[in-house]
């Protein structure tokens, strides 16, 4: 069966700086895949290119068998991708519920929208309690729930999550990863980008290690965790792993 | 009576301009410091059609809206490539270019402006100041109704999402380009409408009526009242539209007082008088809620 998402030789440039240098990877249905790497490795740029928020300077992005390279962002959403951006990026002036409804922007069927809303409230009862509050009044953890809930509203087949742990307290980080694990086990395909590699590789089945815009290591998450190159990418090459 | 009708018309035109800019700047969050350009484009289109080609007010009005909206659509497309301060400077430039064209091109009357514009008429009845005042406030009411509908429809959510975070809005599948262009089209079209009424009300226009200071005044109305708030923006238009009259007695010091009020409001009401989260707005909604609750208990 064709993969749900296929990235072929992706290149992303900001001006003259090439930050993603020929990355290829595949996400099959039901997978949970993590791209890990240090700050500035190009992880977020890959996701932004997948979502059409930055143009791909080269390569192709194929979602659900459709080549979306060069197509506008909204076609990725109708194509089945839900996106949780880095730093949450909720709409601060809109209420919690309107933030969620914005996530269902591309869903025409109101029944489906109500169904998604009920499901999101079931997953995050806290959001229902605060449905009328402006999103800016939520705590960091609640905003992260809202960002994930908003991405779920369109009923995506592929959930793309960028740095879910960023700026959150350790307890909340654990909850966020438990939630991702739950969504994955309920059948959702997940593509994660994380600096917190240890956590990400506990949840993910497959891992890709990115360094300077290139994938230098990939494989089963369990194999990756102890790999010397993996530690080297974060701490430098001469660190001993115990 | 005549004085009040003229004042009502002038204030009505300011309110309409403030409402129109609010769609672009307040709702969609796109800076536009050259809004008077569209006011001018509407006024000149209407004036030229009326004086050179004998088109009556109603026909000229529609063309004026269309021409302003068309130029607005181009600016909307430009806004896809330019962000924030760059877009703001582009709009200022557009204002200066428009005024320069009106001032120097003979076809537009040059420095002499365009005179002899016919007032609106229905059948044999020519509108006097009172009828024009009625017309402008009917238009304001219609625009408020339209604006309310847009705010509550998907269009409103989409615009506010774009204003809050453009990239996140795009990632939700909102077609940012379409909505930005639409916001510019509607906002500039309404400014053109205000311009057309202005031209037929004044019967004489010149480039100076649409200068940069007018753009800044319109923007001040939106910011003072509260970006995105319809009652707020209307209040801003009324307060700043009336200010020159209210402060007439201090003549030369008018601008000083005017500016000081703006500074004070921004200090104590940073989101505008009736903007989201402003103290006045919270007081009012709290009051309305208490009243409502009281009514239910009774």
TrEMBL record, chain B:
CDD domains: TM_PBP1_LivM_like. It is found in: Cell membrane. It holds the Pfam family BPD_transp_2. GO terms for cellular component: plasma membrane. One of its GO terms (molecular function) is branched-chain amino acid transmembrane transporter activity. The chain crosses the membrane at residues 6-25, 32-51, 57-79, 86-105, 125-146, 181-202, 214-243, 255-274. Its main location: membrane. Coiled coil: none annotated. InterPro entries: ABC_BtuC-like (IPR037294), ABC_transp_permease (IPR001851), LivM-like (IPR043428). Keywords: Cell membrane, Membrane, Transmembrane, Transmembrane helix. It comes from the Bacteria. It is a multi-pass membrane protein. This is ABC transporter permease. It comes from Desulfotomaculum copahuensis.
